[in-house]
């Protein structure tokens, strides 16, 4: 199961996200109570399905998990892709909320560590999120592009807040920190060594400690770049 999850994540850089926005979202009249319950059930089922199986989950599987017929999914959201898009946006919104909470920590370094650990854990636990954040193509919708920029800006602010304290080595960029958060995805086994269930946390901690000033070894290469 773990190897299957990793293989899906490793393929994610080549996947097309295939997500849309629900037509007329927010403009329709207030739905009936049963329609609202069905909509909420579909959203919850989609969140769980994306996390467990990624963006290739079928409309039928989502509807079954919600205890509804697939026709209800199409009536509520128009297409499966629109439902996926709505849920993916909610993941990004949660990352922005997390970043704001971390910026309120008294110690800027503690705030940065908390954000990276939480994002690393989300990448590990949510296959769909790992697929979307790995995509280097232009976001498929203006809404997702806006959320991507918002998350990037939040990480920039977290990074500069720490840099102002002198704790962060000068050659570390916010892009380095974003890439670091994906190090949780392939840390389970190596040459007969089993990292254990929390081995990824040790790896992230080692990486974060390597970002602290003073720098002992110059970084090689030009560093990660923004491609969106």
TrEMBL record:
Residues 36-95 form the HTH tetR-type domain. InterPro entries: DNA-bd_HTH_TetR-type_CS (IPR023772), Homeodomain-like_sf (IPR009057), HTH-type_TetR-like_transc_reg (IPR050109), HTH_TetR (IPR001647), Tet_transcr_reg_TetR-rel_C_sf (IPR036271), TetR_SbtR-like_C (IPR049445). It holds the Pfam family TetR_N. One of its GO terms (molecular function) is DNA-binding transcription factor activity. PROSITE patterns: HTH_TETR_1, HTH_TETR_2. Residues 1-10 have a biased composition (Basic and acidic residues). Residues 58-77 bind DNA. It comes from the Bacteria. Residues 1-32 are annotated as: Disordered. Keywords: DNA-binding, Transcription, Transcription regulation. PANTHER family: HTH-TYPE TRANSCRIPTIONAL REGULATOR BETI, HTH-TYPE TRANSCRIPTIONAL REGULATOR RUTR. This is TetR family transcriptional regulator. It comes from Streptomyces fagopyri.
């Amino acid at each position: 199961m773990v190897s299957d999850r990793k293989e899906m994540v490793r393929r994610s850089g080549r996947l097309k996200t295939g997500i849309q926005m629900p037509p007329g979202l927010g403009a329709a009249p207030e739905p009936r109570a049963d329609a609202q319950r069905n909509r909420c059930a579909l959203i919850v089922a989609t969140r769980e399905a994306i996390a467990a199986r990624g963006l290739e989950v079928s409309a039928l599987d989502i509807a079954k998990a919600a205890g509804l017929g697939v026709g209800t999914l199409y009536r509520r959201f128009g297409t499966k892709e629109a439902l996926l898009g709505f849920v993916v946006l909610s993941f990004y919104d949660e990352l922005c909320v997390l970043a704001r909470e971390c910026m309120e920590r008294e110690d800027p370094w503690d705030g940065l560590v908390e954000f990276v650990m939480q994002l690393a854990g989300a990448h590990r636990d949510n296959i769909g999120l790992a697929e979307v954040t790995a995509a280097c193509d232009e976001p498929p919708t203006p809404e997702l592009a806006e959320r991507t920029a918002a998350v990037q800006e939040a990480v920039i602010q977290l990074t500069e807040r720490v840099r102002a304290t002198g704790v962060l080595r000068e050659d570390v960029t916010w892009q380095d920190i974003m890439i670091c958060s994906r190090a949780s995805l392939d840390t389970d086994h190596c040459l007969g060594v089993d990292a254990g269930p929390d081995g990824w946390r040790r790896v992230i901690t080692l990486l974060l400690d390597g970002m602290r000033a003073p720098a002992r070894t110059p970084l090689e290469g030009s560093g990660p770049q923004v491609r969106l």
